[in-house]
Amino acid sequence: MPKDIKSVDGTMNSRQDADPVSAFKKGHQDLLALCDQLEEIADSLPDQINRQKCLYAARALCPLIRTIDKFEEEVLFPQIKSRMPDNTVTPKTLTRLRFDHCEDECFAEELSEALHKLGKSSANINMETTGYMLRGFFEALRRHIAFENEVVLRWKP
Ligand SMILES: [Fe+2]
Description:
- This protein has 5 helices and no strands.
- The chain is elongated.
- The chain has 157 residues and is an all-alpha fold.
- Helix 2 packs antiparallel against helix 3.
- Helix content is 78%, strand content 0%.
- Residues 69, 72, 97, 101, 144, 148 line the site of fe (ii) ion (FE2).
């Protein structure tokens, strides 16, 4: 059962106190819970929309993604890089992960606007396009998480 979107807060206070790998895993749990919520919204289109859930998702989406990406890029990735100085694959892999983050953050802004419109029952929203955006976003994010897990969990701090 996925966590409710209201409990996905995006703060990094508890993450900064924990070891980086534990904080990383917690971040991924929060992102996967968000993906589950977005999938539920996509499945509810066009006739069974929970408007309140759309508004919560619209508000949570960008801060959560940015906070977790920032932690990974500013805390975790430099540690991985410094512990594997002779590994030529790691810098390219970390660059790819940063590129994924950048794409996700741009897409999250568009999706947040669409979710806000859904939540407010806006007349000028295309349900088919919104469903396509939702599925494209959470499927790409789940792929990113799976790949990032392979990279980071191979690394022993
Ligand atoms: Fe990431």
